[in-house]
Amino acid sequence: MSVRKILHLDLDAFFCAVEELRDPSLVGKPFAVGGSPDGRGVVSSCSYAARMYGVHSAMPMAQAVRICPELLMVHGQHSEYAAMSRQVRAVFDDLTPLVEPISIDEAFLDVSDLPEPAEKIARSLQARIDRELHLPSSLGVATNKLVAKIANNIGKARHRKPTPPRAILVVPPGQEQAFLDPLPIKELWGVGPKTEEKLKRMGFQTIGDIARAEEKVLTTQFGKHGRDLWRRAQGRDTRAVEYAHASAKSISQETTFPKDIADGDYLRQTLASLAENVAYRLRQQGLCASTVRIKVRWSDFSTPTRQLTLSQPTDADGVITQAACTLFEALWDGRPVRLLGVGTSNLTPCMHQMSLWETPSEKERRLLAAMDELRERYGEKVVRKGRSLGKSENR
User: Fold this and answer.
1) To which H or E segment does residue 72 belong?
2) How far apart are alpha carbons 131 and 302 in whole angstroms?
3) What does the alpha-carbon distance between residue 55 and residue 41 come to, in Å, rounded to a whole number?
4) pLDDT digits (tens, 9 = 90+) for 338-354
5) What pLDDT is stored for residue 351 in this prediction?
6) DSSP 3-state assignment of 352?
């Protein structure tokens, strides 16, 4: 079974970051988004400069002003935050359809089926959101949601400067327990103030203390919740990233080359590999696409895209690859390429009808099904079609 790659992304002081885009004079200053200090207003979000004074979200605004007299107050523009959140979600969807939003500024992403290492994917995603939307973000990377979320919390907590943390903390596969063991018990999901107090009375100080305890000790005191705490303390979490198939508007994949590439054969092989991965992900979701698009980024960072609409929806490697290559040949003029991407959209559930006689397309579908089964058992790279082999395997 392949190792999962889960990202937890949290936008750094999201409301404040949006307000800084609206009013650049706020950058670097202590300010808070929220209600009036004259009433019962509270801090919805505060800049990292304000946090240096001890201001934090959910604090009464009157108290925030007392501990930071130069605090600037901004009334939130929630329609602006929602609009920006939708743009961030579009970036997620361009990377993977496996997205579970937690709040307006936080989400889990399952990138297990992408070929790049998880840390590389995380850094690329962080850089893209920063570059395209000018929003800082932090990520936790792990093999499950529990550890990814805690990793993000710890990564951000280690930052003690008046600037957004832009943290990325990676917990390698097999290191979940070692990462969790020394952390205070309050970092574990499900441990609130009352549970923390009770656990400390029982002699637990770290997550490792809970992990090494007898399960029955926890269940005796907390019932089923105790069993959950015991399992979480060991870094065990099999929950899937919860996403809605119907919400997937596109499936795409892209790669950024370590150096700009002008080798046409290598670019075509890379394009074929990307198209095959996109088709595989479509089949995994039971979806077919009517539109195929490609994205090419030149060395000057200009990024043209091209797309075409198919005569009928498909999830077949060959059809998507042929369409992507047709678009590429019409667009590429020999210039070095920095980034190459293949995407599909106008997605609908697939409806494949079997005929009495096996046609060539049905033979291909059976071959694809066999290849997909091998991928699921042994990993993404265990089987590749001939056209995507060659230079791409040893470059």
Assistant:
1) strand 72-74
2) 13
3) 14
4) 999 999 988 887 754 43
5) 59
6) coil
| Residue among 80, 106, 196, 380 flagged as catalytic | 106
pLDDT of 92-137, one tens digit each?
988 988 899 888 899 999 999 888 999 999 999 999 999 999 999 9
> In this structure, how many other beta carbons lie within 10 angstroms of the beta carbon of residue 123?
16
List helix spans (H) across 255-390: 264-285, 317-331, 360-378
pTM: 0.64
Contacts for 283 with CB less than 8 Å, ≥ 6 apart: 315, 350, 368, 372
Residues 6+ positions from 102 with CB-CB distance below 8 Å: 108
Token pair, residue 370, equals: 């066999």
| Domains of the chain and any CATH numbers | 1-170 (3.30.70.270), 177-233 (1.10.150.20), 245-394 (3.30.1490.100)
Residue 221's SS3 state is helix
Question: Would you call 132 a catalytic residue per the annotation?
Answer: no
Residue 28 falls in which region: left (phi positive, over 0), alpha (psi -120 to 50) or beta: left
Cβ atoms 266, 391 nearer than 8 A: yes
- Taking the mean position of all CA atoms in its chain, how far away is CA 248? 14
Q: How far apart are CA 190 and CA 188, in angstroms?
A: 6
Instruction: State how far the Cα of 339 lies from the Cα of 354, in Å rounded to an integer.
Output: 39
Side chain identity, residue 127:
A
Residue 325 one-letter amino acid: C
Whether the CB-CB separation of 391 and 263 falls below 8 Å is answered with yes
Contact 26, 156 (CB under 8 A): no
